Amino acid sequence: MVTLNLSGHPVPWSKNSPLVGVNLDLGDPELLVDQLQLALEIMPADFYSRLRSGETVVVALPGMTPAAAAVLAILHGLTGHWPQVRWAVRGADGFEWPEQCVLDLDAVRLDARTMR
Length: 116
Prior knowledge:
Elements: E1 2-5, H1 29-41, H2 47-52, E2 57-60, H3 66-79, E3 84-86, E4 89-91, E5 94-96, E6 102-104, H4 105-113
Parallel strand pairs: 1-2, 2-3
Antiparallel strand pairs: 3-6, 4-5
Helix pairs in contact: 1-3
C-alpha cells in the first residue's frame, strides 16, 4: 500500500509515509495546481511506478477542499486509477483516523457505471 499524506497531520497507519507540506492558495486555481504538482514531485523515487503498477494508493486528504479535488485529478491522470482516500475526524485527543473513514474511489466509480 502506498500512502500520500497531504493532510497536514501524522497518519498512524503508515510510519514511513512522507508528510508533504503544501502552502495552499485556494484563491488561485492555477497556483493551487502548480503547488500540488510540485509537492507530488518530491515523493520517493518508486512512488509513481508503484502507483502505475496498480498498487493500492491511500491518500490522506487536505480536508474536503478544492485542493483535495485537484490532488485526486492529478493522481488519476498520472496513474489511470482512483485512489482510496482517508480523512481525519476530531476526537477527544485531537485528530483520529477511524477505519470507517476510508473510501475506495475506484469502487465508487465502478458502482456508478452500473447506473448508466
